[in-house]
Amino acid sequence: MPDKKGYDPFSARLGILISGRGSNLQSIIDAVATGALDASIAVVISNRPDALGLQRARDARIDALYLDPRDYPDRDAYDRAIAERLRGRGVTLVCLAGFMRLVGQPLLDAFPLRILNVHPSLLPAFPGLDAQRQALDHGACVTGATVHLVSSDLDGGPIVLQAAVPLHDDDTVESLSARILEQEHRLLPQAVGLMAEGRVKVVGRRTVTTGPRH
Ligand code: GRF
C-alpha cells in the first residue's frame, strides 16, 4: 500500500549470490552496519567453495552457504535449490554481486522483478564477461557501472542506476576495473535502498522512481 509520499516500501531481507571476491557484498554489509541502508542480510550463497565473499559473510556473522552446481542434474534444478534456500530464509530481495552464472527461469519466477545485478559497464554497452576489457578494446571514451533488475535477457533487464566512468589513455583492465568498482560499491547499496523503499516501478523496459533517483 503506497504511503503519503507514494512510496510502497517492503522489509528488505536480502539474499546475496556471489562467486568470488565479494567486494560488492562487502559494500552492502558495510551500508547495513552503518545504518546507511535499512535492510538485513538473510543469507549469502556462493557457487564456488573458495569465494572470498563467503569469508566476508562469516566474519559479519551472516549465514553463508556454498552450493555446488555439480550436485544438481541441470541448471534449473540448481536454481530451484537456490530459490528454496532463499525462500526458506524469508528473503524478499536478491542481489547478484559478482555471481558468475546465468540465472534461469525457476529463480526468476521465484523472485519476479526482485533480483538486482551489478555490471561493470554502462549497459547495454559491453554485456557479458570481461566488460572492462571490452570497453578498452573498443576504444570507448566512457564506460561505467550499472545496477539493473534481472530478466531472462542477459544483462538486459530494466536499469535502476548507472554511473559513468571515463577511460584514461594509460588505463589497464586493472586500473579501469578499480575505478568502476568504486561506482559499483556506491550504486549497489543505493539501488537496494531504492527498491526497499518501494520507490522503483517497472514500466515496460524502464524503471521509474518516485522521488529523486540519486
Ligand atoms: C564486479 O565487477 C561485478 O560487477 C562483476 O563481477 C565483479 C565482482 O566483484 N559482475 P566482487 O566479487 O563484488 O568483488
Which secondary structure elements does this structure contain, and how are they paired or packed?
Layout: E1 13-18, H1 23-34, E2 40-46, H2 52-59, E3 64-66, H3 75-88, E4 93-96, H4 105-110, E5 115-119, H5 131-138, E6 142-149, E7 159-166, H6 173-196, E8 200-203, E9 206-209
Parallel strand pairs: 1-2, 1-4, 2-3, 4-5
Antiparallel strand pairs: 5-6, 6-7, 8-9
Bound molecules: 5-O-phosphono-beta-D-ribofuranosylamine.
- In terms of structural class, how would the helical and strand content be classed? alpha/beta
Bound compounds, each kind once, are:
5-O-phosphono-beta-D-ribofuranosylamine
Low-confidence segments, given as residue ranges, are none
Mean pLDDT: 96
The biggest beta sheet reads:
7 strands, mixed
Number of helices: 6
How do the strands of the widest beta sheet line up side by side? 3-2-1-4-5-6-7
The oligomerization state is single chain
Order of H and E elements: EHEHEHEHEHEEHEE
* Beta-strand percentage range: 15-25%
Task: Explain what this protein looks like in three dimensions.
With 214 residues, the chain is of the alpha/beta class. Helices cover 34% and strands 23% of the residues. The protein has six helices and nine strands. A seven-stranded mixed β-sheet has the order 3-2-1-4-5-6-7. A two-stranded antiparallel sheet has the order 8-9. Helix 1 (23-34) links the parallel strand 1 and strand 2. The mean pLDDT is 96. The structure holds 5-O-phosphono-beta-D-ribofuranosylamine. 5-O-phosphono-beta-D-ribofuranosylamine (GRF) binds at residues 18, 20-24, 53, 97-98, 118-120, 181, 184.
